[in-house]
Amino acid sequence: MKRRSTISVLLCLGAGLLAGCSPYESEAGHVTRTDLVGHWRASGLCDSSLTLEEDGSAEVKRWPMDFDYMNGRITQRESGKAAWTLGSFRGEQSFRVETESANELLMLLEDDGRLVLLQIPGRDPDNSIGCRFKRIDRQKFN
Fold first, then answer.
1. Phi-psi region at 64: left, alpha or beta (left = phi > 0; alpha = psi -120 to 50)
2. Counting Cβ atoms within 10 Å, is residue 24 exposed (0-12), middle (13-18) or buried (19+)?
3. Distance between CA 22 and CA 38 in Å, rounded?
4. What is the pLDDT of residue 23?
5. DSSP string, the chain
6. What is the C-alpha to C-alpha distance for residues 20 and 13, in angstroms, rounded to an integer?
7. Residue 100 CA to chain centroid, in angstroms?
8. Taking the model in full, what pTM does it have?
9. What are phi and psi of 99, to 5 degrees?
10. How far apart (Å, rounded) are the C-alpha atoms in residues 47 and 49?
11. Which of 14, 52, 81, 134 counts the highest number of beta carbons within 10 A?
């Protein structure tokens, strides 16, 4: 987890806008399940939504699955039922979304008091984009 977080942060810092990250974002700490339940949206090229329910169920719409770096476009999407988990390992929080065809680890970031979920679609995080999901039904967390 720490290696993945470090890679993602370096990706954000190195690729800036391409990765969809802001230099003002930092890893969010002490995120609770209540902080995550609700409706989330990633705009721009990602154009996707995620709804997280209290019972761990979820729904994804136009969930980015793969990215074509050479052509700069998302090449595969998924919509439907999903599940989510929030856990911790050795003091590090982990947030996962499991769709019918993928089990993805998303980064929990904080930007100006707002929780941001960072998804990096595809098999190669070095040649992808960052989909920044922002909560659309509540702005602040913690």
1. beta
2. exposed
3. 23
4. 52
5. -HHHHHHHHHHHHHHTTTTT--TT-EE--S--HHHH-EEEEE-TTS-EEEEE-TTSEEEEEEEEEEEETTTTEEEEEEEEEEEEEEEEETTEEEEEEE-SS-EEEEEEEEETTEEEEEE--SS-GGGS--EEEEESS-----
6. 10
7. 17
8. 0.77
9. -100, -175
10. 7
11. 52
What pLDDT sits at residue 7? 41
Q: Any idea which residue has 């997280």 for tokens?
A: 52
Residue carrying the six token digits 């802001």:
22
Which has the closest alpha carbon to 79: 96, 100, 108, 106? 100
Q: What is the mean pLDDT of each run of 10 residues along the chain (142 residues)?
A: 42 42 66 94 96 97 92 93 93 92 92 90 82 81 50
The DSSP-derived string for 100-122 is SS-EEEEEEEEETTEEEEEE--S
pLDDT for the residue 115: 92
Q: What per-residue string of b and e applies to 2-15 under the rule 16 or more CB within 10 Å gives b?
A: eeebeebbebbeeb
pLDDT at 92: 85
